[in-house]
Design goal:
rod-shaped; mainly alpha
């Protein structure tokens, strides 16, 4: 009987040792996985912050340019009469947009989304805090709308033809120095807010 008891205890002890070893292995593996995920998440957040900072710098340059063209246009418009603006754009000698001092095209801010898209493709975005996902998705969606709007203005300028009037070109430039400029300023302000919120979320973790 004692021999049987010892044998059972021996197998039980061996089982517990094996079970503990398996548990320890799983625990260590999970901890390593969590550590790696945390590192990848932090790396991804840093990439997104760098990307937003680059986009912010690009917006600031675009804003300065569009404000310059706005100032130049404000001084040109009064020199044209009400009938002048309804003349055909091609062949007229009173206004050429490419003769505006400082003119360098419509010029849109080059807004990247590589870091954000990379986070979505890799699945690491699922590890972000919900506040972060909401803020960052909103800002990238706003960037997309800005680019689409700016591209529509660029296409209007590209499609100038023999039926285009001076007032049509004015309208396109006014969109660039009006609505697009306002959009840029709002986007810049929102990016700055998101940057601040992200840094606060990281500090409160």
């Amino acid at each position: 009987m004692k021999k049987t008891t010892k044998s059972v205890l021996k197998y039980l002890l061996e089982f517990l040792i094996v079970a503990f070893g398996v548990f320890l292995g799983i625990y260590v593996s999970e901890q390593e996985s969590k550590k790696k995920t945390k590192q990848e998440r932090e790396k991804s957040v840093n990439y997104i912050l760098e990307e937003l900072n680059d986009n912010k710098n690009s917006l600031q340059k675009s804003i300065s340019y569009h404000q310059l063209i706005k100032t130049k246009m404000d001084s040109i418009v009064p020199t044209l009469s009400g009938t002048d603006v309804y003349e055909a754009y091609w062949g007229n000698k009173k206004f050429k947009h490419n003769q505006i001092k400082g003119w360098n095209g419509v010029r849109l801010a080059n807004l990247e989304d590589t870091a954000f898209e990379g986070a979505k493709i890799s699945g690491i975005i699922q590890e972000y805090q919900i506040e972060f996902i909401h803020d960052i998705s909103k800002i990238y969606n706003q960037q997309k709308k800005y680019t689409e709007f700016g591209t529509s203005i660029l296409n209007r300028m590209i499609n100038i033809n023999s039926s285009t009037k001076i007032i049509d070109v004015f309208g396109s430039i006014r969109l660039m120095t009006g609505d697009l400029l306002i959009n840029e300023k709002q986007l810049l302000e929102n990016i700055q807010k998101v940057e601040t919120n992200i840094k606060m979320l990281r500090n409160n973790k």
